[in-house]
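Teaching assistant's notes for section 4

Start the section by putting this record on the projector. Ask students to predict, before seeing the second block, whether Putative neoxanthin synthase will look compact or extended. Collect guesses on the board.
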Amino acid sequence: MDTRFMLLTSPPPPTKTQHFLHSPPSSFSLLPTTHHTKTLSSFLQFSGSRINSINTNSTWNFIDLKSEQQPEALDIDLPWYHPSDRPRFDVIIVGAGPAGIRLAEQVSQYGIKVCCVDPDPLSIWPNNYGAWVDEFDNLGLDDCFDKTWPMACVYIDEGKTKYLDRPYGRVSRNKLKQTLLQNCVSNGVRFCEAEVWKIDHQEFESTVFCDNGVELKGSLVVDASGFATTFTKFDHNIKKKNEGFQIAHGILAEVDGHPYDLDKMVLMDWRDSHLGNEPYLRVKNSKIPTFLYAMPFDSNLIFLEETSLVSRPLLSYTEIKKRMVARLRHLGIKVKRILEDEMCLIPMGGPLPQIPQNVMAIGGTSGVVHPSTGYMVARTMALAPFVAFAIAQCLGSTRMIRGKPLHTKVWNSLWPSDRKLNRQFYTFGMETLLKLDLNGTRSFFDAFFDLKPHYWKGFLSSRLTPMELVQLSLSLFVHASNRSRFDIVTECPIPLAKMIANVALESI
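Reveal the predicted structure now:
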């Protein structure tokens, strides 16, 4: 889900978030179009086994259907960098994803010269983004939704459902990127259509080498190229990153019907009755559970995504798809057409990059992914202004601070001490979830969504102070069932000890 909150034999986990989306036909004007990046069949071969081995009638096996989405790019007249132009900029941003474009927009409003480098700056982002409406309202991006729902719900089990009085929306990738790009154009940002293959650093200046022969020079290079980057460095002394992984398979589908209320999006459906006739899948799901995330647009159009909140080691795509086929069959959801499909992998937790270093990072590689939920886009949008302001203080018209002082100030704007402390709490949340089976996970979220809305909303949106996170933890323990308390005490002493030690180090 983004934007949201990942064993069979599986290949080593990729280091990059991978999404494979296709665009709907023109009759579904509600939804944006995206670039095709890889076929479903080729990825199934990569994941190690064929999905048609599922014990189900082919009538219910939507995996055999082909996505109908067609690739399409935005129609915006960007100011392109030309080799005859002066190659010197204040800031060079590598990557035109949400993080890169948002930072370019924010930095350029201070009159700072920015160049954004990407192989295809006008392509539609392939990721499916969901976000709480209030988060985008606070950013002035409230018109960048395809659809919103006034409430969300969480199915804890067959007998219990939580209703969350907080509007949720599917982000319009088309509208969001258009808005940010148009602001960049108005602010004078230049765009270079190329892939960066090398960055050289001098004391006060860096040189970016592109695959088309262009060489750009800037006072600061920002890496917004995603999880697979090689430009952002991590501490070599950390032998094991200890990341968790969120993995999901989603489809935007035309269906005969579905059982979900149209005025509520389904944040999590933890029910497992659909695995009653699949004993092998049920045993696996009881140990490493997955849930359904659903956005019902109308009675015949719905986005469905089977998601592993976090796992270590990585749960396989094949396992995810098998569980999803069984779930939809049990719910009576017959897929007639697939308008988009999506496979995503999000590394969660792990160490932060080296702070400071010559390259500034933002987005996936910078550590801003919420370690407990996988949410990142709204948070990146909210943090970009802080980074932009720090850059402006160093490279604005009245001052010229470069080199190590620049790198230190900019990195500290993204990761001040209180934000690092918060991340330790969120990482502890991830480690706790990794220890819980299906029943433990259900008990955890049953207690979590019984907290005062200020706490669960603040936790999901990364808004709580360190003291509020301590209060949340105490309140969660009080609200938890005896089983949940037992699980936390018996299963999580090591993660708790690590969190306390890390918090102590951050506080020194």
